[in-house]
User: Fold Orotidine 5'-phosphate decarboxylase from Blautia wexlerae.
Amino acid sequence: MINKLIENIKKTNAPIVVGLDPMLNYIPQHIQKKAFSELGETLEGAAEAIWQYNKGIVDAISDLIPAVKPQIAMYEQFGIPGLMAYKNTIDYCKEKGLVVIGDIKRGDIGSTSAAYAVGHLGKVQVGSNRIAGFDEDFATINPYMGSDSVNPFIDVCKEENKGLFVLVKTSNPSSGEFQDRIIDGRPLYEWVGEKVAQWGESHMGNEYSYVGAVVGATYPEMGKTLRKIMPKTFILVPGYGAQGGKGADLVHFFNEDGLGAIVNSSRGIIAAYKQEKYASFGELNYADASRQAVKDMIEDISTALNNR
Amino acid sequence: MINKLIENIKKTNAPIVVGLDPMLNYIPQHIQKKAFSELGETLEGAAEAIWQYNKGIVDAISDLIPAVKPQIAMYEQFGIPGLMAYKNTIDYCKEKGLVVIGDIKRGDIGSTSAAYAVGHLGKVQVGSNRIAGFDEDFATINPYMGSDSVNPFIDVCKEENKGLFVLVKTSNPSSGEFQDRIIDGRPLYEWVGEKVAQWGESHMGNEYSYVGAVVGATYPEMGKTLRKIMPKTFILVPGYGAQGGKGADLVHFFNEDGLGAIVNSSRGIIAAYKQEKYASFGELNYADASRQAVKDMIEDISTALNNR
Assistant:
């Protein structure tokens, strides 16, 4: 799957991923009204609105991008119906040829991590059948519990040719509270990065490992160090756009081959029509605004990479 | 909710919680057969088997215990139908007067943590309605991303009188890989414990905080230290029984008032009938075996607490 991700990036010339993280207040009124008139102001109604909204965006941008990253929390907040919209979104994006990164940030003791891995990336045994639950291509995971919480994910990835992105240095303001603390002269995130590189050696694709890392665009200097510590690790970079990261901050996350990183934008793309810059598209044409925002993001990153 | 948990513990005289973490191979053949004959060897069939199995156990033990802790991964592995069984289990246990601790170990950047908090502990706004998604009483969360990933959970807990257990020192063998690393002379888990105590001050119940901690039974000496660092923090203690923790290891997790900790057992209770000790109950009477295992666990912990 890391090979397919890289192939998609080369084909689109766009090392970006669009975060499908819908909030109800992003969704245009005409979509909300239709869903609520059919299903009421219920979890089902909200889930239907999200799904229609996502579908509109994916139809408008799928030819421009290699991958999407639905954030499961934004669906989970609407309970079971929300999770059904998450699953529909995954299936639809895969049909369109997109790589799907499930942003689930799971992680637990061994047998429990194995259950998450099976449910999201693998197949669960039921009697004589093996059945996929959510079936994302990649999943994000949390390393706080150490190797025996990560290895069950790697095992399933090996079976299924799927991949991971392990949290190393997250994009949020207080990520440093624990991640930046100094251990034997180096911050915790570097020790985690080193482990990610080791874990990755056990499951290599052609050029990069199936085991990637998450490093926030908001910390470009740390990205530079981590790039060196993890040369064969693909880095998923959140925090571009709405969280403050800019194209120029991103160059150090990439290797000389122009690969090695994929930059995420969520709000900046899916709710583009709410920005002054794209307001002329109007709410009805929200998906066209998203398409333009994708083009502008690709241009911003290409320019930064060409100027380095 | 921390007050209700303590009230339930005093009423049952049992500082324990039963982990409802079903694996298909724990479930007696007669339950699996019935579910599969109705719904096939499908995710729906597996979910039905899990739900019937849980219901049998809860009916047999609910008068003896204060709380249950369903591990969402064990349901999530069966996709949407599995999560419906998770939700049914929560609702049923709450009807029985049990406190429900959702073992979800979520955590993300601010707005995303807020979505998880709303979905699991609060209510989501849909038009003019506020609707609960999963509606557990407590949730476990992961602190790797720092305060701004934890605070949105605390905010929802304040609104809803609900609570948290934050991972501090987990029960698994490789938990020390990062958690035990020394920072300014003290292990990371102590720094996290100190933060948990601080977070807890902002949301106090009568005797203890609504913000609890997870510390594994498998590390009793560390439990002793953490008990002192977090005097007003309730500690959820996994790792008893199947993972190797014994009653005598647990005394240091409790305060002098006999409170301050709640010990989890999962497999040791719900799959008791598979142990030699309880084999005489037979597979058909699996729930009676679980009831006896609960009584034995309460006895083991009471004896240890009385002998300290």
About this structure: The mean pLDDT of chain B is 96. The longest helix of chain B spans residues 286-306. Chain B touches chain A through 75 residues (CB under 8 Å). The first strand of chain B starts at residue 16 and ends at 18.
